[in-house]
Amino acid sequence: MPVESTLTPGDTVLAAGRRIADRSGETPVMTSPEILDELLGAALFFKCEQLQHTGSFKLRGASHAVSCCRMTARAWPRIPPAITARPWPAQLRCAAFAADVVMPECAVASKVDNVRRYGGQVHFCEPTQAGREAGPGRPGRAGVLTAVPPYDDDHIIAGQGTAARWNCSSRCPDLDAIIAPVGGGGLLAGTALAALTRDRHRPQVIAAEPAGADDRDALKLAAGRVEDHRPDTIADGLRALVGERNLAIIAEHVEHVVAVEEDDIIEAMDLLWSRLKQVIEPSGAVSLAGLKKLAGQLPGQRVGVILSGGNLDVAPLLATLR
Amino acid sequence: MPVESTLTPGDTVLAAGRRIADRSGETPVMTSPEILDELLGAALFFKCEQLQHTGSFKLRGASHAVSCCRMTARAWPRIPPAITARPWPAQLRCAAFAADVVMPECAVASKVDNVRRYGGQVHFCEPTQAGREAGPGRPGRAGVLTAVPPYDDDHIIAGQGTAARWNCSSRCPDLDAIIAPVGGGGLLAGTALAALTRDRHRPQVIAAEPAGADDRDALKLAAGRVEDHRPDTIADGLRALVGERNLAIIAEHVEHVVAVEEDDIIEAMDLLWSRLKQVIEPSGAVSLAGLKKLAGQLPGQRVGVILSGGNLDVAPLLATLR
Lengths: 322, 322
What we know:
Order of helices and strands of chain A: HEHEHEHEHEHEHEHEHHEHHEH
Oligomer: homodimer
Shape of chain A: globular
Number of strands of chain A: 10
Largest interface: A-B, 32 and 32 residues
Strand content of chain A: 15-25%
Distance between the termini of chain A: 52 Å
Structural class of chain A: alpha/beta
Largest sheet of chain A: 6 strands, mixed
Helix content of chain A: 25-40%
């Protein structure tokens, strides 16, 4: 399903935003002028995707891809269901879709619970890149389902890009830079396309990635590192390899990729939890961790920081209070 | 400093709101219709005081009391400074005030850090009721300072009551009930006064208190329990005894007091952290814990739940991720 050819790449994000307006929520922008701006030496605008329905930006791409399936379904009513690696919310349960969701065996329990809560059927795969790509061993209804890849897909990329629309908030001026985490590259590529829509003042786009999930394809942009992909990071949302479509967009439009260590991620979580009072999962804190690594390189600039999600198991953490 | 006699008790909260509008932020209301409403069997409207500057509602009462001192200071410029058990924000540092803040020795480190970050001078007292009332052993400049009690004070009560103004949010209809935590009783008494301002549809006011900080004065309203006061609860913000002024208001206007166990508090924190993605301290989760105890008693009602603060040391919790 190619993106409509009459649209520029940036326009696809705007079109996706209109298409999913009724099923993914607008998320707020938070600021911390006295503490975090002071600490980082820049004016920060945090895009709060942890407050999206389902707790992460991923609803955006999934909703968009499904809405495109839905259009297909109207034409060919016998091929409506979709198979995807993303959960989506209750309002879509009634939309004549069956959601079969492929997740790695080691997926965080709260994420598996959420898929089931919203009516999805979970299929586990091996927690490797090959496993992710092969999907479930026994696909069940897969023969009659439409497959939606988790990130290497134009509809997914355009949908994820809607998270990077700061202009919707009147509190936020034009940005000089946007920093987003990179795993499979859906959010990052979408963010890069979203940045293209700003004719007057186009922000540079910066990626942040856990060093433990270093991804030769993405990181070579920055440092030429080429290593085997053996993801080992608490940022469970960023363990995938960058997709092909994603890489093409990233190579063209992303200025810089910063690698962060595990301790950087936890330190960034501490800042976000204690200063913004927001529960941000490790993957969601990677952009702030990356920004800290760049400290001093964006002096006084207006920087958009995408907090991509807040889904983690808090029970073991809270158990330490007992 | 008595409350102006021309005002009704409810009016004092409205007047306090106008007086502190430029120094305490309006806090948002969050909802969770699909998950928490479903679980609790009521329509819940969470007032997010963890998003107040300084991370708790306490700025409201402190700002209000200080603004009253300030008026005095204009008349008698040699008596401006204040001594209080509440921190306040940077914008007040420049307001010709010296903030000397009395805190118990066992105060949570993040709270002590915050007072110092905002320019306050910390004086530790013994972590007992007698210690709290005696204040610091060596008061330093206390001889020339104006003392502001932490809760047993009309200005503090009226200021804290401004947290209970849901009407400011257009998303929120008239409430049938409001539930607030009780420690010294500043927030609860203020909430009770705020409820009086609703002529058309006056919500019942419910208090929630940790069983480990049971307070015979408050609890006897509900169950006639009379025990020695030996606070032992993780809800560090609720260990104080209810003040005299506070008790008078609570006895007249609060319908019900619910006691919650420590496990109830942690379970409520889990719900708020994982569903609303908000870092809520133990004291701040006590109202939801109380509401859970009342499950089924408020069927389908519109209930305002005050999340009173989000200041806790998250570093030890996050350390478990390493």
